[in-house]
Protein 1
Amino acid sequence: MSLGDAGPPIALVVIFAVFSLLSDDFRTLGNVQNIMDAAAVLAVVTCGISFVLMMGSIDLSAPGVMGASAIAVSLLVANNRNDNAYGLLGVLVALLLGSALGCLSGLALVSLKVPSFMTTLGVSAVGLGLATLMFAGVQPNIRDDMLDSWAVQRFLGLAYLTWIAVACVLVGWLIQRYSRLGRYAFAIGGAEEVLALSGVKVAPYKVAVFTLAGTFYGLAGVMVTSQLSAGLVQAGKGYDFAAITAAVVGGTLLTGGRGGILHSAVGVLLVTVLTNGLVQVGVSPYWQGGVQGLIVVAAVAAAVLPQRRRNQVTK
C-alpha cells in the first residue's frame, strides 16, 4: 500500500478522533449509526461514478437518471396516482431505466467522440425531461410497505438502505477486482492507446461501464424514493458533484487509472463524517461548504502531485 492509499483512511481516523474530542454527542453509537445511514445513497452513487472515473471520464448524468428512476418506481409500486402495485418488479424496471440511460451516455460518448461530461450532461437533461413528463404536475406518494421498510426497518442497528449500500460496495469491488470489465476500466484510464494497440475493442467496455454506472444511479433513485416516501424529479440533485468529491477525496483520480471502489467508499465516509461533525460542533452551514471545498482541493492537489512533478505540465 502506497502513502497515497493510506492517506484517506488515516485522515478519516484523525477527523473522527478530533470531532469525538470536540463533541460528546458525536462519538455516541446513535450518531455513528446516523452517519452510516446518511452515507447510504451517496455510497451507491459513488460506486457508479467510480468506475467512470477509473476510465478517466466524467459522469454528470446522476441527477437525471436518479430523477427518472425515482418517478418510475413511485408510479409502479402502490401509490396515490394509479392502481399499480408491482413491488419488486417496479424496482427492477426502475433499475433497467437507469441502465438504459447509462447505456445512452456510453453510446453517445463512443459514437459522437465528444467529452464525456458533455454527453452525460445531455443524458441528465433527458432523464429530467422523462421524470417531468411522468410527474405530470402531481407528486406520486408511495404506499408500498416493502419499499417503505427499506428506510424504516433496521438490522443490527442500521437501516436496510445502509445494508443495500454495503452490498453495492461489495459487488462493485468484486467487479473491479475479478472481472474483465473492472480490469479494463483501469487500463483505459491508465493507457487507453496501449490497450487499443493490444487488440482490445475499447468502445464496448466504455459503454458497459456507463451502463453499470446508470444501474447504480437508478438504485440510488429508488433509495431516495424510499426515504421520502414519494417520487421527486429532483431526487438526485447535487449527488453528481457530491459523489465526484467523495471519490476524489478517497483517492480515485479524475485522470483515471488509480483508486477504485474501496478508495471511494472511504471518501464517502470522510465527507459524511466531516459534514456530521461540523454540524455537531455548531459550525455555520455557510462555513461548512467552504471547509469541504478546501479539503477537496487539498485532496486533489495531493493526489496529482506525483504526476505533476513527473510530467511538469498543467492541464
Note: Confidence is low (pLDDT under 50) at residues 310-315.
Protein 2
Amino acid sequence: MTFRFKLTGGAALYGAYAALAAAAFAAAFAAAAVASTAASTVFGGAAKQGAFDDLNRSRPLAALGSEKQCARYSGLPARWRDDPQAGMVHLHGGDFAFGSKLGYEDERPAGDGKTHVAGFWIDQTDVTNAQFAAFVKATGYVSDSERQGGAVVFHSPTREEMNARDLAWWSWVKGAAWNHPTGPGSTLDGRMNQPVTMVTQADALAYARWLGRDLPTEAEWEYAGKAGHEGADLDTAPRDEHGKPSANYWQGVFPVLNTDEDGHVGLAPVGCYAANDFRLYDMIGNAWEWTKDVYSGPHQSHTNGDTAAVAPLSRRHDTPMVIKGGSFLCSRDYCVRYRAASREQQEADLPAAHIGFRTVLRDAS
C-alpha cells in the first residue's frame, strides 16, 4: 500500500494526508483481526511457559527500562569482555507462530506458521556505539561507511524539498559514518549509549565474529521479539497501560511533524523503555536490526522508503537482506512496522541512519 503526495496546501494538507493514510492502514489491519486472535491460541500453551530460563539466574542483567536508567548507562554491559555472554540473556528453544495475518503481505505465515527455533543467547539491547568503538579500537576495523565515503542520513524535509523529489527525507551524506552520524565534524559525544547505526551487514557480522557470535536469523529474532506472545496486540502501536508510547517510534505526521510523545525525536539510548517478557529492550522501534537472512517473498509496494534511491549512482546494488523491528521513523500514518512480525529489506552493504543490530550465540547442537 503506497501513498505518494506533494505538499501544496500547508498544514491542512498534512493533516488530511495523515487521516487518510491512518484510516487506510487501520482498515487493512483490522480486516483480519478476528482470525488472527483465534489463531493466536494455537501455540498459547507453549508460549505461556516462556523461554527465559534458569541459565539467566544470578546473571548481571542490564538495569534499564526507564529514562533515568538509560541516560546513565555507559553503553557497555556488566563484565564486558570478561564474560563470553556479557549483556545477553538465554532463551531455550521452542515453537512459535512465525509471521502475522494482520500485517503486510510479505509477513503472512506459511501454513499455520508453526516454526521451531533451538536455544540461543541474545543481546539484551542493540549493540551500542560504546561496544562497536571497543571493537574498532581492538581490531583496527574500518567500516563500510568509511570505505564508501558516506551513508544515508534522515532529516525532516521542508515543503520545498518534499515537492522537489520523492523520499526527500533521505540524503546520501558524504563523510557520514557510524562515528560521524550526521557527517563530517559530528561525533559520538553523548551518544555512546545509543545503538550503533550506519553499519552494514558485513560490519555487524565482523563485530559478532569478534565475540564468537553471529547475527540472528529472522526466525530467531522474531521468536525473541514476540517473547512468548501471539495475540493481535502485537500488531498495534506499542503503548503501555497508561496509553504512553512504550517504544521509540514516530508520533505525528511523517516526515514533517514529530510530536515527541515518546520522549525522543531521533535515536534514543538503548533501554529507555520497558523490556519485553524475555528481558529484551527495544525489540520494537529505535533502530531496525540486521538479520543474516536474505529477503524473499512478495516485495510489495510499501512506504518505508528505499534508501538505495539516494545512494550514489555509481554504487552497485547488493543482496537485499531482512531487517526487523522498525525504527524511530516508523509511524502510524506511513510505515506501520513497529511490530514484532514486521520485516523490511535493506541492501547488505548500504549503511543507513536507522539500522543497527544485536548478536546471538547459539547453543551447541
Note: Confidence is low (pLDDT under 50) at residues 1-49, 299-303.
